[in-house]
């Protein structure tokens, strides 16, 4: 996603280029101490990079005693599902926390994030023209645009593991194993275990007497239908890849788009729609083969059969319609 700058950004860069090479007033040890303090105050371990802080880093003579990894962010682009900045930022935070877990006393590698609306001058100084953008700034970097090492787009679309490989390949620093947070905290696990122990006598009594929901056939039938819908609607894919149900229309920000025109991406609403149509077809087939055969009135059987055929044909037609519209493999009618 391309970004544009205002005139003040370039004026700021000009001032930096004129002043910084002359005034190397900041001691590198003092800057490392300041960065370490800022990192300790951050709940994520990521330091927020501002124009002022970047000026301080520039004022330290090279080679600097530390390496930087910078994540370039823009809050205005978080709603754009194509570049998935929030997802990429979460992976960056996983990388950061893993590094600090594996290297708690390291003062030679720092993680930064920078916001476009706050620091356009810094974006321009790095020559950032589009997002996503992650770059590694080695200790010898003088011209940040020329000397920084940009992470390739093939790596930024992946996970923290790929980012770790990039850092270890382009620098002397070792990230170590990636530690992903669990779904529930340690305190929550303890509460669940305690509750399970308290309720276990009552659960055992219910199971022995055969008086539980697991013994109710209707529950199993409903569960089977849910699993079927869960499978054919691509819900697991949406959860793993954090696919949104809908996205904001680029041409009209006040409008939501539930069906994306193109085969390169699928929204959650599309999968749920197809899953719903598949489920209708499956339920009608089950009803005709297991319930309708027990109806003795032939006229009712024929009427229900015709209705089931009509609805099934409609459901299959809608699935094919969506498939052709997404892929462009056939004409669209209606």
Short note summarizing the structure:
This protein is α/β, with parallel strands linked by helices. It is built from 13 helices and seven strands.
Account of the protein in words:
- There is one protein chain.
- This protein is α/β, with parallel strands linked by helices and 334 residues long.
- Helices cover 54% and strands 8% of the residues.
- It is built from 13 helices and seven strands.
- It has helices at residues 7-19, 28-41, 51-58, 85-102, 120-126, 144-147, 153-156, 160-170, 186-209, 217-232, 235-241, 268-290, 298-327, and strands at 47-48, 67-73, 109-115, 133-137, 149-150, 247-248, 256-257.
- It has a five-stranded mixed beta sheet with strand order 1-3-2-4-5, with helices on both faces. A two-stranded antiparallel sheet has the order 6-7.
- α12 packs antiparallel against α13.
- The longest helix is centred in the last third of the chain and has 30 residues, at 298-327.
- The two termini are 34 Å apart.
- Its main location: membrane.
- Residues 1-25 form the signal peptide.
- This is Probable dolichyl-diphosphooligosaccharide--protein glycosyltransferase subunit 3B.
Largest sheet: 5 strands, mixed
Structural class: alpha/beta
The amount of helix comes to: 40-55%
Number of strands: 7
Envelope shape: elongated
The mean pLDDT is: 81
Topology as H/E string?
A: HHEHEHEHEHEHHHHHEEHH
Q: Strand-residue fraction?
A: 5-15%
- Calculate the terminal CA-CA distance, rounded to whole Å: 34 Å
Q: What integer value in Å does the Rg equal?
A: 29 Å
Instruction: Outline the low-pLDDT stretches.
Output: 16-24
Spatial strand order of the main sheet = 1-3-2-4-5
Please tally the helical runs, counting DSSP H or I stretches of 4 or more residues: 13
